[in-house]
Design brief:
The complex is a heterodimer of chains A (266) and B (273). Chain A has 266 residues and is of the alpha/beta class. Chain A folds into 2 domains: 184 residues, P-loop containing nucleotide triphosphate hydrolases (Rossmann fold, 3-Layer(aba) Sandwich); 63 residues, no CATH class. Chain A has 10 helices and 10 strands. In chain A, the strands form 2 sheets. A 6-stranded mixed β-sheet of chain A has the order 6-7-8-3-9-10, sandwiched between helices. In chain A, strands 2-1-4-5 form a 4-stranded antiparallel β-sheet, covered by helices on one side. Chain A starts with a helix and ends with a helix. Chain B is mainly alpha-helical and 273 residues long. Chain B starts with a helix and ends in an 8-residue tail after the last helix. The chains are: A alpha/beta (266), B mainly alpha (273). Chains A and B meet through strand 6 and helix 4 of A and helix 9 and helix 10 of B. The complex binds adenosine-5'-triphosphate and magnesium ion. Chain B: Pfam families: BPD_transp_1 (PF00528). Chain B: It is found in: Cell membrane.
Chain lengths: 266, 273
Amino acid sequence: MSQAALRQPPATEATNDAIVEVRGVSKIYGDVEALRNIELSFARGKLTTLLGPSGCGKTTLLKIIAGLVPATSGEIRVNDRVVTGPGPERAFVFQDFALMPWATVMRNVGFGLELRGVREAERKRVAQHYIDQVGLSGFENKYPHELSGGMKQRVGIARAFAVDADVLLMDEPFSAVDEQNRRKFQEDLLKLVEIEKKTFLFVTHSIEEAVYVSDRIVLLSPRPGRVSQIIDPKIDRTATPDEIRRDPGYLDTVENIWDGLRHYAE
Amino acid sequence: MATFAQTGNRVRPAQAGWSLAQAFRARPGLWSLLSFALLCGVWEIAGLWPISYAFPTFSETLLAFWEMVFDGSMLQAYFITLQPLVLGVLVSALLGVALGIVMGLSEKAEWLLAPVFIVLQAAPMAALVPLVTFIYGIGLTAKTLAVIMLALPVIVLNSYKAVRHVSPSLVAMCRSFQGTRMQRIFKIVIPDASPVIFAGLRLGVAAGFIGVMLAELLITPTGVGDLITYHRSIANYAHMYAAVASIIALSMLTLVGLQRFETRFLRPEKRGA
Ligand SMILES: Nc1ncnc2c1ncn2[C@@H]1O[C@H](COP(=O)(O)OP(=O)(O)OP(=O)(O)O)[C@@H](O)[C@H]1O
Ligand SMILES: [Mg+2]
C-alpha cells in the first residue's frame, strides 16, 4: 500500500495509470493455440472482467499474468516491471479453491503470510481481519470439508486479500455458488473493492455478473482467444443493487454483450 | 480406555443403562473393544467344540500367554525378534519414504529407481528370503534384510505414487504465494501425499512382520518364530497359539499407533472422521 502511495504522484495522468499491461501475449499448448497476440492494459484500482466462450483462454491469460504459466511470446508488465514468475504484488483466487484440506480456515487464510515468514501472532491478526471481512467469523477453526462451496471460495478470497497484493486475479470466484448467494457475494465483492482500493481482474461466465461488478469488460473471441471488444459499463454504483439491476443502462449493456457474443454462436 | 470407564462410573452410577449408551456414542473406541470381546468369546466357544485337539480355547491360550510371560520365554523371544523387526521397519520406513518422495519429485530419480522397485514388488519375496542366508548367513543381518526386502518396495512405491498425485492446484497455489521449493515440499507435497504414504507404511509394517516371521521360520529358528515352532513340536498348542496371537496383536497395535501418529501430526482434519 505504502509503495503504491509513493508511486502515485508522478504516475497519475502520464501513463494512464495502467498497473498491468499485457503486450502481444500469445500462448500455444502443443498444437492448441489458446491465445493470439493479446494487447491489454488494466487500470489501477479498477475491476476489469474477462468474458468469453468456454475454452477461449481466460484462465490461461489470468495464469500468465499471475506468472504461473509462461507465455509463448509477448510479455506482461506489472507496475512497469516485466513478470517472470509469481510476485508479492499479485494474488490469485483459484477457481477450484485450492485450499489445504489439512489446515483450518485460519491457517489457510494466513498461508500466504506463513510462506513469507510472518510471525504467528501477526499472521493470525491479519487473517482474522479478512475472515471477518468475508463473513466467516466463527469458522476459524473449521476444516475445508466442513464448509460449503461458497464458504470455501470465500476462504480463497480472504487468503488473497491477506497478503495485501495490489492486483487480485480471480478466476470465476463465484462459480460454486447458487444464484441467490451469488448476488450477495457480488455485493460483498463490490464493498471490498470499495474498501480495499485494489485492482481486480475477474473471470466470469455470467454476462449479468460482469456488467454488475465491472468497471470494464474485455470480451474475448473463441479460440484462439483475441480481444474482440472492450466495454465500459457506466453503472451508478451509489444506487441500490435492485435499482442497478433494473437500470436501463445496465440492461442495454447486457443486451449489447449478448449481441457481441451472438455472432460467435452462429 | 480405563480412564473412561472410571469417569463413566463416577458420572451416573444410578442410570447405568443410559450412561452406557452415551458412553458408546462418546467413545466409538468402545465398539472396537466390544468387537474384540466378541471375537474372544467366539474363540472360547470354538475351542470348547471338540473338533480338533490342536485348537485351544481363548482362556487356555491366555493362561499359556501369562505363563510364558512369567517364565521369561516370551520376553526372551521378543528381545530376539524385535531387533531385526524394529531395525528393518525403521530403515524401510525412513529410506522408503525418502526414496519415494525423491522419485516423485525428480524425473531422473524416477527413471533410475522406479523399475527396480516395480520388479521387486512383483517378485515373490517370500521365495527369496531363504536365498539371503546364502549371502548373509543366519544372523541379525539376514533377518533384518528379510524384513527390508518385504517392507521396502511397497513403502517406496506408495510414497512415489502419492507424491506424483499431489494436487497440482495446491502446488500452483503455493507457487502463486511465492513459496520456496522447500516450503512447497514440506508444507504442500508431504501433507497432501501423507494419506497414501501412510497407507504404504501400514502395508510395509505388516509386510515387515511377515518378513521377520518368515526369517525366523525359514532361516533360523529363533525368537517368536522359534517359540511357535518349539511349542508345536511338543504339542503345546495353547502356547503356540499364544505366541501367534501375541505377534498378531503387536502388529495390530503398531498399525493403530501409526494411524494415530498420522491423524495427530499430519492430517488433523481426519481426527473426527
Ligand atoms: N495445461 C494445458 N495443456 C494443454 N492445453 C491446455 C492447458 N490449459 C489449457 N489448455 C487449452 O487451452 C485452451 C484455453 O483454456 P483455458 O482454460 O484458458 O480456457 P477458459 O477460457 O478458462 O475456459 P473456461 O471458460 O471453460 O474455464 C483450451 O482449449 C484448453 O484445452
Ligand atoms: Mg477457465
